[in-house]
Design a protein that fits this description.
By secondary structure, the chain is α/β, with parallel strands linked by helices. It is built from 33 helices and 24 strands. Belongs to the alpha-ketoglutarate dehydrogenase family.
Length: 941
């Protein structure tokens, strides 16, 4: 008996039915050998036998089968095993596993019944299994159900689970626990929902609503664009399922981002927008909210409401969205992050983001990848997003999918981030309901992203005036013969005796009657009370940019903040260069050394935190600062741990969030914009590593930051710090493209500033949060000025000063002797100042314009009036003439100057590139700029 037991212990695990169990165990071993039993650890170690560290799963199954065969002689005597039976069992185990891996490729999930590809390794014959084996009992391993089943039944179950209306991709996920959870959910339910009659009737009602609103709009507003959902109506019961079950999951808010396809349907049938308001928009009768000077088309507008659910009310928001499709993704994530931070720690499961994509856009837009890549990072994680791809199978117009992507599925990009994907047939709303439940449970369990590929079609063209059959004749022959999802499901319920044809028609008639009566047709929408956090924005609407506030602080506060910022944990060792910087800051706080940029900027953050305000700063290398000036985040040289001193000033202070970002511009800037639109009491800052890096986020700047208010009435206090200045570093790292921001300026939409002293950045950052005014702030920040001997301030400048939109002449030059006045912004000021002092010129004054927009006309006029004998006004800039500020602000000079004053430009000539790449040539150009400004073009000096 002992011999039998020993043999069993040594060999039973080798039985082929345990192959998947062994694979899971092997995965754990690869991740952490100590996580498995010592006996298994020894076995796996021996299996490698000098091979590469990791062997793929199919060979390991074969290896175990081989080991089983070696001992089969003794096992046969004891248990009746044969070499053939072990081979057959191993083959069945591999077949089961391949259905999990590749079953989605032959799933019946395309409503247009496109041909299903042949996948040889999903056929029993591929593994040497024949018809003679179909009725043989095999161990099912971890396949849910009976332990042993005939091969015929095993195949039937595999096809039901993995090849029906849902095709599941999850075996690529590295995390074994996540993979096992999905497998158990799919196989334990056979990938089918257990719906009550009431739930089926609810789905039918949602489908009827989705179809009826489109039909009503189509016949009532003939020829008008609406980007209908027709063909993808199952999106409505999907979203309804998420919202209604969300209350039971303790979700308090859901934020949805989507492009225009199906947007009007979602607004009316999910969020409860009154149809009469929508109809007025179609008629052109709707009045825009004050502040929305341009407004936007109806299928870009956002909306929010409180929706009643069995688990309590949920505030559902549909974000405003431009036509740039997927650019809304990071904006929604940023808004969700701000809401989660507002709720406090561990609030991932309080706010749920849902992003709805188009198939071509999901695979084609780079910002999708950026957003997916952000999902697991400290700065940008929102605890998982439910992604829904409305897969029309035809791209944005009528292109062939082969021209839209290089991947098999439009969702393949999700595999990069270890995200499960469920490809579901849009004509099977019960399968869609099952996937909705699965997706929500997965997200709430693991706080990870999940993607639903809703395979459907587009009944009409890209817009309602388009004729898609011109380029897709065969597809649209099918579509025009194809019953709608509502019709298919209604017939199913009629066959189940849950409704009659008359009841089906009556439901549609009742819905249309409610539309015509101007009644809300969605789930119950709660009272129209003001959303609690919307009230935070009220004081910022209609505020004037001239609104003032006190930005100076006492000397005691500055010294307290610096002292607390110098307190480090026991055993925390600074890098010698950082230690020297911290020592210098002590001297600055004591008044023994002039203040530099890093000190003033850090004090701006610290003093705001001490006033119980929050600060969020992200970007590439912001913790220390690209140019080694900030060092807000310190790194222990002993163990690599980080410490954020300004988060340890006081027990009741605000919170600082300072994170180095991933290498992204569009995604990260979009995220920070979204955050800023939701958190008016937080100073939200994005810093570009170099100012020109913002070029990669131009869509966010154009379609959100500069125009969000005039289109949608959305305010934002976002700050963009853009290092700018000509240092001889070539075309790519000189200019933040100041001219682009100034070109976008109108209606006091944004602020554009070029501070040149530490005190200026101190007051500018504090002003941004303290005054009752929320407009985006674009700051051209310096590089070399961070340590320039002249670019310094005193403690008094912080304790008594304020931000100056214009800085007057600082040298003791007599105004009545001035005949030449140079206006400038940024670093070139110090070049001009040093050259003037060197040449002892006393008839030239230099004035800095520190705020270029809104332009400080009154202060500018005051400066002009100070010089009664002025003959020449010079605008001097480092940038080429066609770039920089010259063409965007010279009208202010023309409008103010007396006719006898000569207005001139001093700067580089127009250029296609921002700067030269040769350092010697850069110095020559810079000298010429200074000489032209000081002496004029023809002096030869």
């Amino acid at each position: 008996m002992s011999e039998l037991l020993k043999l069993f212990q040594e060999s039973s695990a080798l039985y082929g039915g345990n192959a998947v169990f062994i694979e899971d165990l092997y995965e754990k071993y690869l991740q952490n050998p100590d996580s498995v039993d010592p006996s298994w650890r020894h076995t796996f170690k021996n299996l490698h036998n000098g091979m590469a560290q990791e062997i793929i799963h199919s060979p390991i199954v074969d290896r175990f089968a081989s080991l089983a065969q070696q001992s089969q002689g003794r096992l046969a005597k004891l248990q009746g095993f044969t070499e053939e039976s072990v081979k057959k069992q191993s083959a069945v185990a591999r077949l089961i596993n391949h259905y999990r891996v590749r079953g989605h490729q032959i799933a019946d999930n395309n409503p247009l019944n496109k041909s299903i590809p042949s996948v040889p390794d999903l056929e029993p014959a591929y593994y040497g299994l024949t018809e003679l084996d179909m009725d043989t009992l095999f161990d099912t391993g971890t396949l849910y159900g009976e332990d042993r089943l005939p091969l015929r039944e095993i195949l039937s179950r595999l096809k039901e689970i993995y090849c029906g209306s849902i095709g599941s991709e999850y075996m690529h996920i590295v995390d074994t626990d996540v993979k096992r959870w999905i497998k158990n959910r799919l196989e334990g339910t056979r990938a089918k929902p257990n719906l009550t009659a009431e739930e089926k009737l609810s789905i039918h009602k949602q489908l009827t609503a989705a179809e009826s609103i489109e039909k009503y709009l189509h016949r009532t507003f003939v020829g008008q664009k609406r980007f209908s959902l027709e063909g993808g109506e199952s999106l409505i019961p999907f979203l309804d399922n998420i919202v209604q079950r969300g209350g039971d999951k303790q979700i308090k808010e859901i934020v949805i981002g989507m492009a225009h396809r199906g947007r009007l349907n979602v607004l009316v049938n999910i969020l409860g927008k009154n149809p009469s308001v929508l109809f007025d928009e179609f008629k052109g009768m709707h009045t825009s909210t004050p502040g929305m000077n341009s407004g936007d088309v109806k299928y870009h507008m956002g909306f929010s409401s409180d929706i009643a659910t069995p688990g309590g009310p949920i505030h559902v928001t549909l974000a405003f969205n431009p036509s740039h499709l997927e650019i809304i993704n990071p904006v929604v994530e940023g808004s969700v992050k701000a809401r989660q931070d507002r709720y406090g720690p561990n609030s991932f499961n309080t706010i749920l983001p849902i992003l709805i994509h188009g198939d071509a856009a999901f695979s084609g837009q780079g910002v999708v990848m950026e957003t997916l890549n952000m999902a697991g990072t400290r700065a940008y994680s929102t605890g998982g997003t439910i992604h829904v791809v409305i897969n029309n199978q035809v791209g944005f117009t009528t292109s062939n999918p082969r021209d839209a992507r290089s991947t098999y599925y439009c969702t393949d990009i999700a595999s990069m981030a270890q995200i499960p994907v469920f490809h579901v047939n849009g004509d099977d709303p019960e399968a869609v309901s099952f996937v909705a439940q699965l997706a929500l449970d997965f997200r709430m369990t693991f706080n990870r992203d999940v993607v639903i590929d809703l395979i459907c079609y587009r009944r009409l063209g890209h817009n309602e005036a388009d004729e898609p059959a011109t380029t897709q004749p065969l597809m649209y022959q099918k579509i025009r013969k194809h019953q709608t999802t509502q019709q298919i499901y209604a017939q199913k319920l009629i066959s189940e005796a849950l409704i009659t044809p008359e009841e089906d028609q009556n439901i549609e008639n009742d819905y249309v009657s409610m539309l015509e009566a101007g009644m809300v047709v969605s789930r119950p929408v709660l009272s129209n009370k003001v959303y609690s956090y919307s009230a935070l924005w009220e004081k910022y609407h209609h505020a004037k940019w001239t609104a003032s506030c006190k930005t100076s602080v006492s000397l005691d506060v500055l010294r307290f903040c610096n002292k607390r910022s110098q307190c480090l944990p026991t055993g925390f060792e600074l890098h010698p260069r950082v230690a020297k910087i911290m020592d210098s800051r002590n001297k600055m706080a004591a008044g023994a050394q002039p203040l530099d940029w890093g000190f003033a900027e850090n004090m701006a953050y610290a003093t705001l935190l001490l006033e119980k305000r929050n600060v969020r700063l992200t970007g590439q290398d912001v913790g220390r600062g690209t140019f080694f000036h900030r060092h807000a985040v310190l790194h222990n040289q002993i163990d690599g741990k980080t410490y954020l001193p300004i988060n340890h000033l006081d027990s009741e202070q605000g919170r600082a969030y300072i994170y180095d970002s991933l290498l992204s511009e569009a995604g990260v800037l979009g995220f920070e914009y979204g955050y800023s639109t939701t958190a008016p009491e937080t100073l939200v800052i994005w810093e570009a590593q170099f100012g020109d890096f913002a070029n990669g986020a131009q869509v966010v700047i154009d379609q959100f930051i500069s125009s969000g208010e005039t289109k949608w009435g959305r305010l934002s206090g976002l700050v963009m710090l853009l290092p700018h200045g000509y240092e001889g570093q070539g075309p790519e790292h000189s200019s933040a493209r100041l001219e682009r921001y100034l070109q976008l300026c109108a209606e006091q939409n944004i602020q554009v500033c070029v501070p040149t002293t530490p005190a200026q950045i101190f007051h500018l950052l504090r002003r941004q949060l303290l005054r009752p005014y929320r407009k985006p702030l674009i700051v051209m920040t310096p590089k070399s000025l961070l340590r320039h001997k002249l670019a310094v301030s005193t403690l008094e400048c912080l304790t008594k000063g304020r931000f100056q939109t214009v800085i007057s002449e600082i040298d003791p030059i007599k105004p009545d002797k001035v005949t030449r006045l140079i206006l400038c912004s940024g670093k070139v000021y110090y070049d001009l100042l040093e050259a003037r002092r060197e040449h002892e010129i006393d008839h030239v004054a230099i004035v800095r314009i520190e705020q270029l927009y809104p332009f400080p006309n009154n202060r500018f006029k005051q400066e002009i009036d100070r010089f009664p004998n002025l003959e020449h006004l010079i605008w001097c800039q480092e940038e080429p003439k066609n770039q920089g500020a010259w063409y965007q602000i010279r009208h202010h000079f023309v409008d103010t100057l007396a006719t006898e004053i000569n207005l001139q430009y001093a700067g580089r000539p127009a250029s296609a590139a921002p700067a030269v790449g040769n350092f010697k040539k850069h110095l020559e150009q810079q000298q010429q700029v200074v000489n032209t400004a000081l002496f004029g073009k023809h002096t030869g000096k």
